[in-house]
């Protein structure tokens, strides 16, 4: 399998953890470990690192024992700091902007934040896992909407046309130009023109590769 990835799952709900494991393994991915709390996640990844067998991506719940507040996202932030080569995809019951911002702080390569409802869309979830494992970005549309809506750069964002804001939102979700074109039912050329205009208006230089362009946008929104 060309896009086969190695995954560690951190989820305190046994039912959901086993469901995610089945979902991933049925599609040919390797779930190398499944744990129920943040401490076990940190320990497991450390053990895998010692064996030179780090996973490609960690899928973790934001809230885990013992307090069910922010243990999961804090573990994710720590893993990104200690093992920058690992992708981290965080699942949350609802949008928690503070956690999303903290997760995106620093390097934004290999990072994702999805609502748990999104897992019901199997194809979208699996695509997000692979994309994050490969160093890309996968942000839930609702997260993107909040980041765009509450940006301190509203004066500059106001200079974008409604269509450019729509394209920007889809880019921030991690979609390729072709995927954006398909979603908006327009040509690839039209999307490329919108992307060029967006970067010009935001004062950003488009880089080679879709993920780098997405990261530049997210970095701007966080500034």
Task: Kindly describe this structure.
It contains 11 helices and 6 strands. It has 223 residues and is an alpha/beta fold. The chain has a 6-stranded parallel β-sheet, with helices on both faces. Helix 8 (162-172) crosses helix 10. The longest helix is centred in the C-terminal third of the chain and has 15 residues, at 188-202. The chain has 2 domains: 4-147, Rossmann fold (3-Layer(aba) Sandwich), CATH 3.40.50.2300; 159-220, Winged helix-like DNA-binding domain superfamily/Winged helix DNA-binding domain (Arc Repressor Mutant, subunit A, Orthogonal Bundle). Residues 153-223 form the HTH luxR-type domain. The modification 4-aspartylphosphate is found at residue 61. Residues 6-131 form the Response regulatory domain. It holds the Pfam family Response_reg.
Provide a brief overview of the structure.
Helix content is 53%, strand content 13%. It contains eleven helices and six strands.
Task: Annotate the secondary structure layout.
Layout: E1 6-10, H1 14-26, E2 30-35, H2 38-50, E3 57-61, H3 71-82, E4 87-92, H4 97-104, E5 111-115, H5 122-133, E6 137-139, H6 141-149, H7 154-157, H8 162-172, H9 177-184, H10 188-202, H11 210-222
Parallel strand pairs: 1-2, 1-3, 3-4, 4-5, 5-6
Helix pairs in contact: 2-3, 8-10, 9-10
């Amino acid at each position: 399998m060309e896009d086969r990835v190695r995954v560690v799952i951190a989820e305190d709900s046994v039912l959901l953890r086993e469901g995610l494991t089945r979902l991933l393994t049925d599609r040919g991915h390797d779930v190398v470990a499944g744990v129920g709390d943040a401490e076990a996640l940190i320990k497991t990844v450390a053990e895998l690192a010692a064996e030179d067998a780090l996973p490609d991506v960690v899928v973790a719940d934001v809230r885990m024992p013992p307090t069910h507040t922010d243990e999961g996202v804090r573990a994710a932030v720590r893993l990104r700091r200690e093992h920058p080569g690992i992708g981290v995809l965080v699942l949350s019951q609802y949008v928690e902007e503070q956690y999303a911002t903290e997760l995106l702080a620093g390097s934004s390569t290999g990072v994702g934040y999805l609502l748990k409802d999104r897992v019901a869309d199997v194809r979208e979830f699996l695509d997000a896992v692979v994309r994050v494992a490969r160093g890309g970005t996968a942000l839930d549309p609702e997260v993107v909407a909040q980041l765009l809506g509450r940006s301190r750069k509203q004066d500059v964002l106001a200079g974008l046309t409604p269509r450019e804001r729509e394209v920007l939102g889809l880019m921030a979700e991690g979609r390729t130009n072709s995927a954006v074109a398909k979603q908006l039912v327009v040509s690839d050329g039209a999307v490329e023109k919108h992307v060029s205009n967006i970067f010009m208006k935001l004062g950003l230089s488009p880089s080679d590769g879709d993920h780098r362009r997405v990261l530049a946008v997210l970095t701007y929104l966080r500034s």
